[in-house]
Design goal:
18 helices; mainly alpha; Growth Hormone, Chain: A
Length: 414
């Protein structure tokens, strides 16, 4: 197959694999608080707190290990590290359906964070093999696959939880990762040349090269806040739904709410490359972030399940465009040959959001009430969006010259 077509084949295979794998992983999110209750935690405040802790357990381990896996990917190749992530998820997700108490579940969620990290691995693999002028499109497609999985997974997961039970749904989720593993193994070709011995850098040296890019560290910091919003409200939404007198299953309604958010996010992710091409990455990112923050605020006053679903869907119209635009900037700013290390740090920032935000959301819901969570994360997201134009400069748009701007931001990686 000609090289001009190979990158497309790799892209579509990786996007499909990510959709399948993450759909399996998202099967369990709509009913996680109810699984905690089934494992013996009955107090509503403690259920909210434990639901946040489970997200923190996974996110804290991802925070530690994502840069390590990213550095290894720069040395040994991105494809092997993605395959490793799928196998780790297969084992840990399956075992979560066999736990006997909430402490065992928390331990396995932490272990899952050690061995997975499919998102930064897949992003680095796509970025390394895609022509520079198609990066925004490629990363938007991968992000669309992620959001689509968050649409399909919770929707199916809520229905499965009602029909086959919580534990069996965990067991069903595992084989999704096996299918993704085989798809990448058999279809994706990576043309990776290991660095020469004198060019190989240690893990610390790789990170130092990335840390020296000031603007790269700014965008990685922004990525933390972009991912904090959905993670913050994830443990709140099922409990918010349960507070409504709907007469329907709260698990199924929660699944629909998550699906609505992911569906609109997927559409926005695909459209983000065109918007970025016209407005610039920085301006598009700032607009989407402020819009997402403003959209969170009215969710706090939703009085019934249909209103909640519609308002959450509006959040997705803005939030879906944020991450692929930020990832395109990460790829552009990464030192040559260190893209995986840069995406590893971006994955670490995402993981830190996964670790801190769910716990923070649980604490806010427990102490201030379910409605307050949407006001808090909405206001914070608006502040971040308003700060982006000041903190981040984009070469060729707001600098005196492209070369001068490139010096300020770092040369495009690759």
């Amino acid at each position: 197959m000609p090289p001009t077509e190979r990158w497309r084949t790799n892209l579509y295979a990786i996007a499909a694999a990510q959709f399948i794998a993450l759909a399996g992983g998202n099967l369990v999110f709509p009913f996680m608080p109810f699984y905690v209750e089934e494992l013996g935690v009955t107090d509503p405040d403690r259920i909210a707190l434990w639901s946040g802790l489970l997200g923190t357990a996974t996110g804290s381990m991802l925070f530690v290990f994502s840069p390590i896996w990213g550095s290894l990917a720069d040395r040994f190749g991105r494809k092997p590290l993605l395959l490793r992530a799928y196998l780790g998820a297969l084992v840990t997700m399956t075992l979560q359906g066999l736990v006997q108490n909430v402490w065992q579940l928390a331990a396995l969620r932490a272990l899952q964070g050690v061995f997975v990290g499919t998102i930064p691995a897949a992003t680095a693999l796509v970025a390394a093999g895609t022509p520079r002028d198609r990066i925004a499109y490629a990363l938007g497609l991968v992000q669309m696959a992620l959001f689509s999985s968050q649409f399909v997974g919770p929707l199916i997961g809520g229905l499965l939880a009602n029909s086959i039970g919580f534990r069996t749904t965990f067991l069903v989720a595992g084989p999704f990762y096996l299918i993704s593993f085989l798809l990448v193994l058999l279809v994706v070709e990576e043309r990776f040349e290991r660095p020469a011995v004198h060019e190989r850098a240690s893990f610390v040296a790789n990170l130092r090269l990335v840390f020296e890019r000031r603007a790269l560290m700014v965008i990685i910091g922004v990525i933390f806040f972009l991912n904090a919003g959905p993670s913050f409200v994830r443990p709140i939404i099922p409990l918010f739904v349960e507070s409504f007198d709907t007469g329907a299953s709260p698990e199924a309604i929660s699944g629909i709410a998550f699906a609505a958010l992911s569906f609109t996010s997927a559409a926005a992710a695909l459209a983000s490359s065109r918007i970025s091409a016209r407005a610039g990455y920085r301006n598009a990112l700032a607009l989407a972030t402020v819009g997402a923050g403003a959209a969170y605020l009215p969710v706090a006053i939703a009085g019934n399940a249909p209103a909640l679903i519609v308002l959450i869907a509006v959040v997705g119209l803005f939030s879906g465009g944020m991450v692929p635009t930020a990832n395109a900037l990460v790829d552009r700013l990464a030192p040559p040959g260190r893209q995986a290390s840069a995406f590893g740090l971006a994955g670490s920032a995402t993981a830190l959001a996964f670790a801190v935000a769910p716990l923070s959301g649980g604490v806010v819901a427990s102490s201030l009430g379910l409605h307050a969570g949407f006001l808090v994360i909405g206001a914070l997201t608006i502040v971040v969006g308003l700060a982006i134009p000041t903190l981040l400069h984009e070469p060729g748009r707001d600098e005196p010259g492209v070369a001068e701007g490139a010096e300020a931001m770092g040369e495009p990686g690759g």
